[in-house]
Specification:
This protein has about 80 residues and is α+β, with helices and mostly antiparallel strands. Helix content is about 20%, strand content about 20%. Strands 1-2 form a two-stranded antiparallel sheet. Strand 1 and strand 2 form a beta hairpin. The radius of gyration is 16 Å and the shape is elongated. The model has no long low-confidence stretch (mean pLDDT about 75).
Length: about 80
């Protein structure tokens, strides 16, 4: 894709156990008496390569990614 066009050689580590796509997948869980969709596996990424930093900036300007400024925690037994 776009990374290759920019001369980058990305490495993707897929954490899917049952199917491909674990790197940015979601699950439906019961929490607080309701079903919730929880995104997991791609909690964050870093950009240390200048070309990749520029690509991430373009994604930010398009609204495709944004910096997370909220809390980080664990859901246990339906409680955050």
């Amino acid at each position: 894709g776009r990374c290759l066009e920019l001369g980058m050689e990305p490495t993707v580590f897929d954490t899917g156990r049952r199917n491909v796509g674990g790197r940015s997948s979601s699950r439906i869980v019961s929490a607080g008496g309701r079903k919730q969709v929880v995104d997991h596996s791609a909690q964050f990424f870093t950009a240390s390569d200048h070309k990749f930093e520029q690509l991430v900036k373009s994604w930010e300007s398009q609204g495709a990614v944004k910096q997370w400024k909220g809390p980080v925690g664990v859901v246990t037994g339906g409680v955050f």
